[in-house]
Every structure is written in structure tokens, then in C-alpha cells.
Design goal:
The chain starts with a helix and ends in a 16-residue tail after the last helix. It has a domain of about 200 residues: Spore Coat Polysaccharide Biosynthesis Protein SpsA, Chain A, CATH 3.90.550.10. By secondary structure, it is of the alpha/beta class. It is globular and about 75 Å long. The protein is built from eleven helices and eight strands.
Amino acid sequence: MKILFWLSAIIIIYTYIGYPILVYLLSLLYKKPLKGKYIYPELSILIAAYNEEKNIENKIKSLLEIDYPEERFELLIGSDGSTDRTYEIASKYINGKVKLFRNLNRQGKPSMLNLLAANAKGEILVFTDARQRLDKNALKELVKHFGDGRVGSVSSSLFYENENHDNKTGAGIGLYWKYEKFIRKSESRMGSMLGATGALYAIRRELFPKLPNNLILDDVFIPMKIVERGLRAIFDKKAKIYDRVFNDPKEEFFRRARTLAGNYQLFYYFRSLFNPFKGKISWQFFSHKFLRLMVPFFLVLLFASNIFLTASKFYLIMFMLQVTFYASGLLGLLFKRKIKILDVPYMFCVMNSAAVVGLYELLMHKQNALWRKAEAVHS
């Protein structure tokens, strides 16, 4: 039982603490600097939308007013089987710059992105969602790195506008994203990050891979395919996009479960990266993606093995610490208002529970390319 206890503990500690520290230190030692300068390539901005009548008009207006030469970008919007007024609202803006596509029946986001990319004319494809708000400088900051021929994908930096409100979901998600961005910055500085921020990212048009119809996470699949081709997928902290936290913690939980189900799916598409001879990207994939999803199972093993070791004072203390931590996470769930001291155990428990639910839903074929709408908190 001691072997099982310590093996589980080492894997958990390495995944959440060891890997972030190690990748940060290595990124300082083996830094691959970027020489980004403001360039203005022709852009095709792609939006795949489903039932976005509340957001689509504001999104279109904001993109048409963004700080980027008007003649250097086009906007392609795809309504994937929307049953509300998404298509009708977007139709008002159709002109030479704004193009609208429509699937009468839902086929899923990958199918729509394949259609939009096939009709895009820009040198750079920019992917964004209907809900989030772009910083006025986001596009020019995002594409400035494409002057470097080694760069194939650039990800934006996501900020939650209401993470500090009296909302426990916002507090937890904001904390998680600060942690995640720390890792992504380090990976990017060292070479390539794993994936992109789905709310806003860009790639070279010729690198767009045809997406499988059942794909859940285009924002990881596309950049990873680019990395497989030997180009860099990088992170830019100045390319900012803003989102809002979901009203209901259950909505955020199931959104997270879907994302994690998509990560499990990626193990099939990128199974070659389990070969350690693929280099540091294989190590990153194993540590950041695979082990992160294995942690819930090692948490169970850690707790279960600890039960049989409580005759020793040390292991009894370890057991009580685990019980206290999980109880704090449960309290974080039960309290309607956020309590700062409970943020970490609450979000830790949510993320790991969502990983288990995501795996179950993927295996039971309850997750697919048809995304489900969720409403964000508005102040």
C-alpha cells in the first residue's frame, strides 16, 4: 500500500506542481524568442454559430470596428442549424466583407469550420466565437508573429470580466485560468504550447487541416496538427479577449466536462505523441494533457491506499489532510457565495470530477460535435 500511496502522490504532485515549475525553468534556459512586428496580412475571420441571436449582432459590429485596416479582412459567419434569429440578424450585414453561410440542419462545428475555411480568401484564418468580446488591438497583436516563418498558430489570452464578482464560479475559473496561462506562456516560450484559446486564435490558411466530423476540440486539434508539421504554436498575452462566467455552476461543470472529453478524444488522434522519442512536445503532451486527465484516478488510489496506512501517525495526518481538503471543496460547492479560502479545493474538485464525467460521456457517446448552448453571467 505504501508503494501505491507514494506512486499516486508523486504523479499528482508532478502533474500540478512539478511540471509547471519544470517547464517554466526550461523555458528560461531554452528560450526561443519571437521577433513580432506589426504586419497587416489579409485575414479571414471565421465564426461558427448556433442559436446566437443574443450575441451575433454585437459580435459583428465589434469586429467591423476593430483596429485593423478595413480592406485587409473579411468576416465569414456560419449558422449551423440555428433555430432562432441568428441567420436573420446576421443577414442584415451581408456585403463584400461579410459573408454568411447556413446549414439548415445541424452538422456540428467541425463541419461548419471546414465549410468556412474552404471559402476563406485571407492569408491568415482567425477563429473566434460569437459570445466573447475582443480587445480593440487583439487582431493586430495576434497576427504580428506571422512575419516569422516558423510560427504556424497564435493563441490569444482569455480574461474573465466578472471573475472577481461575488460569484464562486467566477472566482474558481479565474484562478484556474491564471494557472493555465502560466503553463501556456512557458510552453510557448520554449517552443510550442498545446492547443489554443478557442475564443480567439489564428493560423496560416494553408495549414488548416480538414476536421473530423466528430471532433470536439478544434482549438487543440488544429494547433497540434500544425506542431506535428514542425511549426510553432505560440501564446500572445497582448492579444486579449474577454468572456463572462456562466450563470449556473452546473453549466460551467458540464462545459468543462465536454472540454475534458475532447481531450480524451485527442489521445486517439495524436497517439503518436505517446512515443517519447518525439521529443519535448511528446513530454509536454504526456505531462500536460494525459497525466492531467489521469489525476482523478490517482486521487482515488491515494485516498484508498491511505485508509490502510492510518496506523502510522504520518499516514494518519496525510489522511486527515485529504479529508479536510475534500470537505473544503464540498463546502465550496454548498455555499452560494464565494469564500476565498475555499476557491482552490472547490475548483480542484470540480475539475477532477469533470474529467471523470467527461470520460464517461465520451465512452457512452454522449459527447459529440454538436455543442450545447450555455448562458454567461452579465452584470
